[in-house]
Amino acid sequence: MKYVWHMLNLSWSDADRAQFAIRLQSIDLNGMTVPPVQAAYMVQYRNNLIGKHFKTLMQTLAFVIHGMVTPQEFALVKAVGELGAVLWVHEIHDMELYLVGSNIYHFVCVTLICFNRMT
After folding, report:
1. Which of these ranges, 21-25, 27-31, 67-71, has the smallest mean pLDDT?
2. Per-residue model confidence as pLDDT tens digits over 33-73
3. Cα gap 37→24, rounded to integer Å
4. How far apart are CA 12 and CA 42, in angstroms?
5. What is the residue-wise DSSP string for 36-96?
6. Distance between CA atoms of 64 and 33, rounded to whole angstroms?
7. What whole-number distance in Å separates Cα of residue 84 and Cα of residue 76?
8. Closest Cα partner for 65 from 118, 109, 7?
């Protein structure tokens, strides 16, 4: 998530960052396992975020940036969000089923496609 966040911020103008902060601050956090969002802080110190900020971004970014990024960037953000949901499972009852259903291969493919198109 750290590198995806950095990549997105490089292409945004100050107006885009302001719009992102408004959208992020407006998101409903019910049902999410994140602390209260400090959107203005996260945008102002975008290059110095820590784990709790990236956890918040991983769970919310796809909803917040819809319409602000290219389809390739959006696909990458969705893939990272899905990977985060798979990795933050607290207890795995059936490891084989978990590995088959986790679809990590999809994440790797989307990541490679996105970075190849952007470079």
Report:
1. 27-31
2. 778 889 999 999 999 999 889 888 988 899 999 999 999 89
3. 7
4. 14
5. PP-HHHHHHTTTS--HHHHHHHHHHHHHHSTTTS-HHHHHHHHHHHHHHHHHT-S--S-HH
6. 17
7. 12
8. 7
Calpha distance 71→96 (Å, rounded): 32
What is the C-alpha to C-alpha distance for residues 101 and 99, in angstroms, rounded to an integer?
Answer: 6
pLDDT at 99 over 70: no
Compute the chain's Rg from CA coordinates. Answer: 15
- Average the pLDDT over each of 10-24, 62-76, 84-98 and give the range with the smallest value: 84-98
Question: Quick check: 102 and 54 in contact, CB under 8 A?
Answer: no
